[in-house]
Amino acid sequence: MYATLKLIHISAAILTISGFVLRGFWMLVESPMLGTRIVRTAPHFIDTVFLLSGIGLIWTLNLPVLNQPWLLTKFAALIAYILLGTIALKRGKTRRIRIGALALALLTFAYIGGVAMSKSMGSWLVYFQA
Q1: What pTM does this model have?
Q2: Domain ranges (residues) in the chain
Q3: How many Cα neighbours within 13 Å face the side chain of 49?
Q4: Pairing with 32, which of 60, 72, 79, 117 sits 20 to 30 Å away (CA)?
Q5: Would the pLDDT of 66 be above 90?
Q6: Are 115 and 73 in contact (CB under 8 A)?
Q7: Can you give the C-alpha Rg of the chain in angstroms?
């Protein structure tokens, strides 16, 4: 069960960030693809699978969420990623704001990945310690 949930979670993470990068590119080039129905709805399905598989992993591992600072950090960063993503793709009033939010959202997603792999709030930095 754990291995299946982890595979689903990692696959959904790859699909989520791939889709976000593609939509970010379409935002940059002002493509009409960004407004198509499938492009507006598919991310919600993928992100739901991503979230539910993460919850399934927590449940399967019996993780005490409130006693896991790295997990709480992932949740906080996830909220930041979602907010930045909506600014980048929809709510940013200017192109400059949307581009900045896109860059920050991508950095935030990378941070989340590092936290997930290292199980540390230090994210990728733990791999560079002497």
Answers
A1: 0.88
A2: 1-61, 64-130
A3: 17
A4: 79
A5: no
A6: yes
A7: 16
